[in-house]
Automatic annotation (TrEMBL):
The chain crosses the membrane at residues 12-33. Residues 11-53 form the TadE-like domain. InterPro entries: TadE-like_dom. This is Pilus assembly protein. Keywords: Membrane, Transmembrane, Transmembrane helix.
Length: 143
């Protein structure tokens, strides 16, 4: 019969792996958080572009607000990690006289939830904002 020596480290690999698993999970969750934020940033940029373009095509300031909000909501759709969405439209360009260059500015804000990832140090939510500008037709009537 063979005796085990006292300095052997039987079972230490399993203990080391058990200690390493939470670190691996935290790294994966940080990657997921980064992915959510990157996806939200791209989606909000596109939504702001769509909102500004839709607002610039509207005939009136009131229609510009409505069209921009609709365009942003449609652009963001269901596939984004946004918990809440806000659209602000600066239609002061509609007040410029015909023949004067003017723009419409659309700002889209999205709140991304991160609390469900359970990573210490991450905020519960992160706000992603994008602003885009679209020119108004210089010679089209504005109201």
């Amino acid at each position: 019969m063979t005796r085990r020596r006292r300095d052997e480290r039987g079972g230490s690999a399993a203990v080391e792996l058990a200690m390493l698993i939470p670190v691996i999970i935290a790294v994966v969750m940080l990657a997921v958080a980064g992915g959510r934020l990157a996806l939200a940033h791209g989606a909000v940029q596109q939504a702001a572009t769509d909102a500004a373009r839709a607002a610039s095509l509207a005939r009136t300031s009131g229609d510009a607000h409505t069209d921009a909000a609709t365009a942003a909501s449609t652009s963001l759709g269901q596939a984004t990690p946004c918990r809440s969405i806000a659209v602000a439209v600066d239609t002061s360009g509609f007040g410029a006289p015909v023949g004067t260059p003017a723009v419409v500015r659309a700002t889209v804000t999205c709140t991304v939830a991160l609390a469900d990832l359970g990573v210490l140090g991450l905020p519960g939510t992160k706000t992603v904002t994008a602003t885009m500008v679209s020119p108004l037709d210089t010679y089209r009537g504005r109201t």
